[in-house]
Amino acid sequence: MVRFQGGTNAGHTIGMGEEVFKLHLLPSGILRSNTIAVIGNGVVVDLEELMEEIRQVEGSGRSTEGLRISDRANVIMGYHKAMDGAEERHRGSKGVGTTGRGIGPCYSDKISRSGIRVCDLLEPEALEEKVRMVLPIKERLLGILGGGGLNPPERIVEELLEYGSRLRRHIVDTSVLINEAIEGGENVLFEGAQGTMLDIDHGTYPFVTSSNCIAGGVCTGAGVPPSSLDEVMGVVKAYTTRVGAGPFPTELHDKLGEHLLQRGGEFGTTTGRPRRCGWLDLVVVRHAVRLSGISSIAITKIDVLNGMKKIKVATSYKIGEEVISDFPASLSRLQHATPMYEELDGWEDWEKGRAIEVARKGYRSLPKEMREYLKFVSSRMGVPVSIVSIGPRREETIDLGKRKWGSS
Question: Which domain holds residue 148?
Answer without folding.
Answer: 74-167
